[in-house]
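A brief tutorial aside. Many learners find it easier to grasp structure tokens once they have seen a single protein encoded end to end. The record that follows does exactly this for Transposase. Read the sequence first, then the structure, and try to relate runs of similar tokens to stretches of the chain.
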Amino acid sequence: MARRRKRYPSDTSDEQWALIETLLPAPGSGGRPEKHPRRDVVDAILYVVRAGCSWRALPADFPPWQTVYWYFNRWEQQRVTEKILPIVRRQLRAAEPAFRS
């Protein structure tokens, strides 16, 4: 499973991915193994969010839009975003320099 090259501003950095990867649900046991790296799927979701494009307008270097949408829908039903956002937000706030008047 080869990972695509980082090409877009919305792609996750290694530090961001290290944080997000641990918060994603484990792959299901049994069935077919995952065909596309999860980081590519997350980067595709972030691309859609940042660009405001439709799923079908994903650039060809991402996994197929149907696959990306399937993961997005599945993770939304599991409330993954609601679990990730507070943690990412906390990390960003901790990294920000203190506001000075």
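Self-check: The chain has a mean pLDDT of 87. If you spotted this yourself, you are ready for the next section.
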